[in-house]
Each structure stands twice: as structure tokens, then as C-alpha cells.
Amino acid sequence: MNIAPRSYSVTRKRLMAAVASVAVAGAIGVGALTSGTSPVLADAVRVEAPQVPGFADVVERVSPAVVSVKVKAKISPAADDGSDPSDDQDGMNNLPNNPQLRRFFKEFRGFGDQDGQGGGNRRFSHRDRNNDQPRPVAQGSGFFISDDGYLVTNNHVVSEGSAFTVVMNDGKELDAKLIGTDPRTDLAVLKVDGVGKFTYVDFADDSKVRVGDWVVAVGNPFGLGGTVTAGIVSARGRDIGAGPYDDFIQIDASVNRGNSGGPTFNLNGQVVGINTAIFSPSGGSVGIAFDIPASTAKQVVQDLMKSGSVQRGWLGVEIQPVTSDIAESLGLKSNNGALVSSAQDDGPGKKAGITAGDVITQVNGKDVASPKELARLIGAYSPGKSVDVTVWRDGKSQTVKVDLGKLPSSDKQASVDQSQPAAPAKPDTLADLGLTVTKSENGKGLVVTDVDPDSDAADRGIQPGDVITSVNSTEVNGTDDVTKAMTEAVKSGRKAVLMQITRDDTNRFVALPVAKG
Predict the structure, then answer these.
(1) CA pair distance 244, 371, nearest whole angstrom
(2) Could you tell me which InterPro entries the record lists for this protein (predicted)?
């Protein structure tokens, strides 16, 4: 009889507890709605991680020294539609005479690459009808290197210009004059006068720059002045075929059209390189940019500031790389150096006794690693300077003293008195080399009439019409001379012979393996 009341009591207690719970929840809900106070929230996520140093301090100090460079040029009279009839670089002349269509293409092609080197400048449409005044046609970047207004940019930025304006970091525009240019290194110097002292930057010792170092590029991409990008040094000593003094620093900082002439800084705020070109299939940055090294720029800029031009020493020889096969054929222990393919008749090298077949290994005691290195070493000396040139000749080193000449405005080509006449009826065969040859009509050398396509000669680029003038520095006038040179090479333990080839009045050397007897 006690069970029922106890069950009722338990049930009643549970019911009351549930009601109390609902009441409490309701009270909390009403309080949240009526009290005006916010609910208590959990703390936001925050990670106490080591802070990576940024570039803000460097950028703040160097930015006032970096400028945008506006270039103006006089153009021919505009046509009725406002275009320049002599300038069809955008292909506008081939479009139908539809103003809307032409306007679309002008807007679409608004950012062009006038310089063609990828570092690029911005193009402006030629709309000013007053043809006596220069119009803006391009933009690039630059930076001050002295407090009295000297600044550096690229030659390809200013090469078409007749008037120049620099835009400061604060937006102020100042007129500038061109002091000098050096197309061979793509450098130019401008000068701003009479505006007080400028914030300027200095060149770094780029020999201490290592692959992997952080760098900061500041410039004027697409006309957006004062733009900062960062990256690392990707490679050193790049040769991109831009000229005889290629020795570029490759960086992966974003560099685009309009960055040309702008500086790349190390974390000390010193200029390690000058933006000059990018590699890009699309025209925009893909993370491969090339800088003129500070060491090159510093010397060139000093010369331009002093005299407006650069005077370089001239050796007067045509050179080519020393391959492993060529080194083997000459008895060299390495493939360092520059092989002289010809010495120009009016050049100082020939006057000093340098001849075709010599391998230049040193200049004034400095090792020559490659033809590019030789060009840079010689170019660093002034015309008239006497230098000691070490050559490898006839299996030993010799040193000749050369009084350097003045580098001509355009590279001179050696004059080789060789003709390539039609072959006589009975050619001879050099079976071991895969060549068929015949005597030249003037009796000097052998004309190649046929090349076995499966031979080493074909692999090394020898073609019918080439003239073999010497083998291992010995003149050849018949197949017997070639055979004798090959036999002597085998006896000396060499695996190849060095042939001097003339093609289109140009000499080069080719190393061909010889059969082991």
C-alpha cells in the first residue's frame, strides 16, 4: 500500500524539476531579450607565433629615391581619326574604318611593350593635335644616385625620347635632361636641376649577393608608381642573349612592364641590380626577371656622368667557347677560356701577334672562364691601356702585350679572303670524318661537298660549302694534310682534331673525334 504514494511522489518530483528547468530557461531567454546586455562569447582564435621580419623599414627609407620616368617624343602629324599614320605597331591600319572598333582595340592594347624586352613601358595614344609639342609615349622607372639630381634608368626607356619628366614618390613632377646612354648595357643617366637636395641610394657590392637572398623591387609597373614587390635572388650570371656583356642577376620578385630602370634592393637598402627584362609568355610577371648587376651599373654610370658616353677597350678578335672536345683536341685540361676564331686585320690583337686558334686564358693575370668573361674584362679597360694577354698555343702558354684600341660603334667582322666555289668533278673522301671534300679554286683549304648525315661532322654542324682552312693550327690544302694531322693527334694521345671552318666570311672551330688505330 506504500508503493503507490511513493511512485506518485517520485513522478511529482520529476514533473516539478522539468517545470523548474523550463522556467529557468525561459528566464534566461527573456533576460537576453529584455536586459539589453550581449551574451558572453568565447575568445577569438589567436596564435602566438614568431613574427617574420618584414620589408617596411627598407621600403620607407628607399621609396623617396625611386621615381617614375615619363618619356615624350615628337611624332608625325595625326590622321583624321587621331592616329599616327606612320605608326602601325598595334596593327590599327589594318582594321575597318569603324570608330567604335578602333576605340575598343586602342583601349584593349592600352598597355603595350614598346621596348620589346619585357621590362616594358606603358604606351599612350597620340591624341594631341599640336604636333610641335612632344607627347608622352612611354613610362619606366628610375632612382636617384646623388643628392644633386643624377638618376639612373634603362636606355630602352629613354631611347625614343626628346623630353623627360620624373614623377617623385609624393607625386611632384620635375623636368629632367638626358646626360648619356649606353645601349650595350641598357643603361642611361638623367639629371634634374635646381630643386634642392634629393634622397638617393647607393650601389651594393653584388659579389656578396647569394642565390636565395631576399630582395625588394620598387618601380612603376603599368604606370602604378611606388609599387613594391619582394622575392629572392634566383640565379647569378644569366646570359639571355641581350648583348656581349650579359651577366644578369635573376630574381623572382614580381616585375612587369614599366618596372624597367627601377632598382632592386637588398635588406640594407642598397641597389643590387636594375630591372631590365622579364621572361614572360603572357607579357605579365611569371616570376622570372633579370637585373643588371650593381657592379656593372656602377662603372657605366660613373662614365656616363663624367663624359656622357662609355669608352671601352677593344681587342679586335672574334671568339667562340671552348667545348670539351675542343679542349681535348688542344691538350687543355679544362674548357675554360675563349677560342680565337679570327683576328681582325686592323685590330690590336692581330698587331700584337694573336692568331686564329689561340685560346685566351688570362688578361692581366685574371682567369678567363668564357667568351663573355673576356668581353667584360677587356671592356672594363680604357682604350690605349696596355694589357698582358695569356694564350694557349701549340700546347703551351704564352703571354703577349696588347695595346687596346677603342671599341667601334658597331662590331667589326673579320675579313677572310676565302671563296666557296663550285666543287670540281673529282672530290676526295675523308671517310673517318664522314666528309667529302675538294680543293678550293684558290688552292687554300678544302671545300666540303658532302657530309654523312650519321657522322660526328654532321652532329657538329659542318655543312656542304664550308671551307676547312686548317687542322690543329696547320694549314691544309689536300686530304693528305688532314690525314697527317689526324695521325699526329692519335700519336699524341688526343681524341680529337681541331678544324678551322670558314662559312660566309666567318671563321669558327670544330673539334672532330679521330678513330683509334
Answers:
(1) 9
(2) Chloro_Bact_Ser_Proteases (IPR051201), PDZ (IPR001478), PDZ_sf (IPR036034), Pept_S1C_Do (IPR011782), Peptidase_S1_PA (IPR009003), Peptidase_S1C (IPR001940)
